[in-house]
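Data card: per-record layout.
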Amino acid sequence: MTDRARPLRVPVQYTPRTMPIRVLPDELVDQIAAGEVVERPASVAKELIENALDAGATRIEIDIERGGVSLVRVRDNGCGIAVPELALALARHATSKIASLADLEAATTLGFRGEALPSIGSVSRLRVVSRAVGAEQGAEVSIEGGGATAVRPAAHPQGTTVEVRDLFFNVPARRKFVRSDATELGHVTRLVERLALSRFDVTFRLASGARVLLDAPAVSDPSGESRRLAQVLGADFPAAVLPVRGAAGPVMLSGWAGLPTASRAQPDQQFWFVNGRSVRDRLLMNAARLAYRDVLYHGRHPVYVLYLTLDPKLVDVNAHPAKLEVRFRDSRAVHDFVFRALERALAETRPQSLSGATTPEGLYEGATEGFAAATGFGAGAGAGAGAGASALVSDGGAERSAAWPSSSGRLPLYESARDPWTIEEALEAAAPATPAADGAEYPLGSALGQLHGVYILSQSPSGLVLVDMHAAHERVLYERLKSERAVARGASQQLLEPLVVALKAHELAALLEERTSWEHAGFDLEALSDTQLAVRRAPAFLKAAEIPAIVASLVRDLAEDAGTHHLEKTADRFLATLACRTAIHAHRRLTIPEMNALLRQMEATERVNQCNHGRPTWTRLTLQQLDRLFLRGR
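The structure for this 634-residue chain is written out next.
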């Protein structure tokens, strides 16, 4: 290696310790602790607002100047601090929230360490004014850079006001890392919005100078909750979410899960609250991601506001310096419960009639029955848990199989030439379509025709429905394949003669590695050589002439999608690719009865609003929208 190519290395010089071991002074200890608690002005606001919530406040006002560097003021109407305890409140590890290890293990308050006020006071000019419930007058105390003044009387209504001025004035090195005023104000705003989502029963008001950035009155009814959601997350959010409610033993999940069509490019609208505490927990976020993987387009992120409530003894909230992460005693059970609850809610994303449709509350109220046994929560264990889990699976399978005909009457795949075997005849032979009840209409209406061999046009009571027939059929097939796999191996047909498929050596090797997935889907495969594959059995809905092309396409697609497919489980990825390859494709001409048969299948299929890749399968133009397009009524 030449000198020019030789990497430049700067030797690191280590200075040996020469000072004796000593106990650090209190002022330095507080500043070290402040490094964990006080990261930026938003950290100060978080600690003060959480103290106000722990004090039982129903109204909290936050005032900010210069992004919080010059001033962070939090005023509440909580229980206040008694005069004899005011000076003690500024001492390290002084708190009224816990008194023993048992209290810590069962903590329900947002704060409990007694570190916030002394840590903030060591790097700022801090003033606390408070008046306790029933006290004749208030009192105040100040602390500047760690030195406290004597407590003195002060006029103040019931509650507490904490002012933090000149943050990091005595720590220039920390001040250099503070960003611009606009950036810091953005962090404070997002913090207050997140806390406003955690407590709908509390009024929050945030102002920066003369500007009011957030004014969220306390609410107690569903319409008020929708208004706060819209205020914090945008006007479109309440209409694009599903209510989620489920419980199992000592655990409950509630909140709102966004529709797949409301996904975003960034995960900036994902909120988790555990026992009222805002957290960014990887386990919970992973459970939500897995629940959405079947309906979300690759690279998109779901939106949700979810609340997990459980026995405080089942969760450790003292696992992170800023209390942003928690640890569950039984993390696997919590993960499975959250995953199942969200998955069941999202499974109901199917067409619903605008008139007389089941309300979301009715849809999801019983969505998590049986979760106690299925996830390990509840009174029983062992055999009881297994029975509950089996009941959960069989119930879901019964619902799906009741809506679908038997395997002898499946929708056919794309055929280059028309033949007498039509979709309509296959469905009628297996299970005649159930007519709509008197006075009711099908959610997707009645087919009118095809557009360019790609879309189905349908008339519904509310307007015009457009359906991507390949995407819709793809989802119908995929859900059917999954339901068959959950019960047993998929329906298959024994071929009179084995079909030989020519593949490349690496393609055949990759296929054999995933042979189990192929077998569960109904294939019986055998390698004849390094480049030849024999197919002895295939799924019942495939035609023999098409099997070699389908197998070759599956192998190529699975190899290309191995690192990018939104479905991570190998079996699901295989079934999704199989459904995509065997669904009807563009330019397949359908009759009106065939189109209606597909619409009825859609209405009975879970998650049918999105195809296997997360793209929409249908949309609706209401009469009001059409009238606006043509300026009718003006």
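Known properties of this structure: The first strand starts at residue 59 and ends at 65. The mean pLDDT is 78.

See the next section for split statistics.
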